[in-house]
Amino acid sequence: MTSNLRSQLACVSAVLLLAVLPSARGQAVSSDTPTFSTTSRLVYLDVVVLDRKGDPVTTGLSKGDFTITESKKKQRIFSFEPPEAHFPEKTSADENGLPATIIVLDLLNSTFDDFAYIRFEVKKYLAQQPPRLDSPTELMVLGNDSLDMVQGFTRDKAELEEALGQVPSILPYKKMNGAFWLERLGQSIDALQQMCLQNRGIPGRKNIIWVGHGSPGFITASVPNAMVKKLYRYVHETANMLVDSRIALFVIYPGLQFGGPGRTWNEMAAGIDLGDSDPFAGDINFGTFVNETGGKLFYNRNDIDSEMKRVQKLGSQYYTLTYQPQIGEEDGKFRRVRVSVRNPNLRVLTKAGYFAPDKTFGESPQLQTMNNMVEALRSTIPFPGIRVTAVNLVRHPDTRTVECTVAVQSDHLQWQTVDAGKSTTAFTMAAASLGKNGRILASRVEQIGLSANTEDLKRTPETLAPVRIMLRMPKATDYVRVAVIENGAGGRLGSIKLDRKLLTSAPETPTPQRQLIPRASS
To answer: pTM, whole model, 2 decimals?
Structure first.
């Protein structure tokens, strides 16, 4: 294994590539909200019951028709909700508890042609929806260097269509260059973590419709055991976050895949039954998260809009069961959860289980960084740990975006000396357009890495090379908040607020054309 590959592996397991944004819908519930864990709290299971044709069964079943086991031990069902309980009066303004949809357009792991097709098919799907959607939906784009929320949760179809129209097509250089496959793996899984924390503590089921191939797989056999343990902890942590947040992952591949079913790792992993074994015990791939969350992978069908309708149906017609597990050992082992129904002609689609806490580990630096970023964006007070300034603010009315240059005071950051007489630093930058009551309307998160041509940390430049950031600014935007945090545990925070008066007084210019910048393999 080359030193370059080792450094990339370290980035996957130890460096945060994306950060997290606070919830964009509803009000946060109290800390007493039950979550999925090995404590005395309730475990929530959202269960889709399917007949022989694969269609959801929504009537004729009661609490007594279901059986739950955890690690082969039968559990007492604490509560039961039929599918109709998840849709209150349609005139109700309270959206908490409604099943929500998160549409992710995967530019990072798609070819240029695939992404053009993805955008066309999603546009076709939205055009067929009613003006007011049955449940909240948001639109995200995973790109080469960022995860963008181009439209926060809304039930207004027109808002989603407008946001989709502003999604640019750019050449996905990481997909085209095989040297970046490890970065794509880390970025894709970190995107899942961000969506989990965004929805943590909010009631109701959430369905991620991931349109694209998802991250590449990872073969663990050729990697040192210490690194494998870190990677396993990383994916176990992500799996638990998905379960805690009541998220189901549905992956829709764009177009036909020559070679037939079973051609890719993700497709095979999403369809395999490992029994009671740890689903992540072998090689790591994105399809395993589909099985783990009770989702589904759609493959070789070439009709994304129809598959999205199918996901919408599966993700909204479900029973909710709860049970109270016994406290188990904090050994980090997989706890297999099974749900069955009395009628043998029916089958269920639900979470596969969870990983018990591991007493040998504390909170990971990645999660600490994510939670700190949540605080920085959610808070109404400034964070002075890192001096952040924004200059050259302009608006682009043609795409309803705002753009500015963000500079960070270098002596407020941790610099590391490297070979060849250089020093490096890395931090995460997030920007969000916020409306009334701090509601997130759009966001962008980027990972920034910079270097200085000196090993003398006292001689690093006083201010970093400016970073240009562009953010969608919907009509209801009251202000924009930019936050910067050092990567790793205990990273310092800096933030700045751009109020509505400043935003509206900014000069107007046409949106610049995206330039295709070739990237050399690292």
So the answer is: 0.80
